[in-house]
Design a protein that fits this description.
Elements: H1 5-15, H2 19-28, H3 33-42, H4 47-50, E1 58-66, E2 71-79, H5 82-85, H6 88-104, H7 116-132, H8 137-155, E3 161-162, E4 165-169, H9 170-181, E5 186-194
Helix pairs in contact: 1-2, 2-3, 6-9, 7-8
C-alpha cells in the first residue's frame, strides 16, 4: 500500500515520532492510524503516549453556552504546567472540546467510563433487535458487537469524530495537541445540560 506524505505528516503531528518511523509504522499497519500509533507506542517512539503517565494538576474549566442558552457545557481540561494552561493553544483546545460536547452530546469521556449495566442494557437491546429482524444465530453475536461499537462511538467523547474535521477523532485531536505542546493533556470531566431535559439519573 502506498503511504502518502500527508498521512506521514498527520501521524508525525499526532505522535511526534520521526518521518521514517512514521512511514514504517503506517506501512506495517497498512494505513490504519490507530494501529500505526500502537506500533510506535510499542517501540517507545510516540512522545504523546510517553507523556500519558505524567501528572496533570494545572489546566482550566471551559464554560460554553450554545443556541441562545439552550445547551450549556462545563469541561475541565488539565495539563502539567501553568505555562501551558495559560497558552492560547491550550485555551483553544479546551474551547473546541466544549463545542464538541455541546454538538456531539457525549455522555462519557471514554468507553472505560460507561457503567457495565449500561453496556449490558445496550447489548440486550441490540440482541433483541437482531432477533426481531430474523437474523440467524450465527451472525447475531457479530451484529450485537457491531451495534455496541456504534453506540460507544456515539456516546464516548474520545471516539467521536471531531466536528471541524470528521477524519479526526477527539482522541487524535488530543494526541496532536499533546505532541504540539510537549505536555500531557487530560479531559478530566464534563457536564452538559440541555434546556428541558429530565434531571432523573
Amino acid at each position: 500500500m502506498a503511504i502518502s506524505i500527508d498521512q506521514i505528516k498527520e501521524l508525525r503531528e499526532i505522535t511526534g515520532a520521526g518521518v521514517l518511523d512514521c512511514r514504517k509504522a503506517l506501512e506495517q499497519a497498512k494505513g490504519d492510524f490507530e494501529l500505526a500509533i500502537e506500533h510506535l507506542r510499542e517501540k517507545g517512539l510516540a512522545t504523546a503516549t510517553k507523556r500519558a503517565d505524567r501528572e496533570t494538576s494545572e489546566g482550566m474549566l471551559e464554560l460554553y453556552s450554545h443556541g441562545n442558552g439552550r445547551v450549556g457545557v462545563m469541561v475541565e481540561v488539565n495539563c502539567e504546567t501553568d505555562f501551558v494552561a495559560r497558552s492560547e493553544a491550550f485555551r483553544n483546545l479546551a474551547h473546541e472540546i466544549a463545542l464538541q460536547i455541546a454538538a456531539g452530546a457525549a455522555r462519557y469521556i471514554s468507553e472505560a467510563d460507561i457503567p457495565q449495566e449500561v453496556l449490558e442494557a445496550e447489548r440486550q437491546l441490540a440482541r433483541k433487535r437482531a432477533l426481531e429482524e430474523s437474523k440467524s444465530e450465527a451472525v447475531i453475536e457479530r451484529i450485537v458487537e457491531g451495534r455496541l461499537e456504534k453506540f460507544m462511538d456515539e456516546v464516548c467523547l474520545m471516539r467521536q469524530p471531531y466536528i471541524r474535521d470528521e477524519e479526526l477523532t477527539i482522541n487524535k485531536l488530543l494526541l496532536q495537541n499533546i505532541a504540539a505542546v510537549g505536555e500531557n493533556i487530560v479531559i478530566k470531566r464534563f457536564v452538559r445540560w440541555e434546556l428541558g431535559e429530565s434531571t432523573a439519573a
